[in-house]
Design goal:
With 57 residues, the protein is mainly alpha-helical. It is built from 2 helices and no strands.
Length: 57
């Protein structure tokens, strides 16, 4: 548990430092969330009508 706390502290320091690495980490996190949002909105069929559940039975 102590090792996990130490890792969390190192990650927190890296994200909130005023360096180019923190910029790269924030950019990568934002890009990953944007890609997930694009996938969810672009490739999920939320706007289409769904087939009835029991149609195949």
């Amino acid at each position: 548990m102590k090792a996990l706390q130490a890792l969390a502290d190192r990650v927190r320091k890296a994200f909130f430092a005023n360096t180019w690495l923190s910029f790269a980490l924030w950019f990568a996190a934002a890009a990953a969330m944007g890609a997930l949002l694009f996938w969810f909105l672009g490739y999920m069929s939320l706007g289409e009508s769904q087939a009835p559940v029991y149609e195949g039975f």
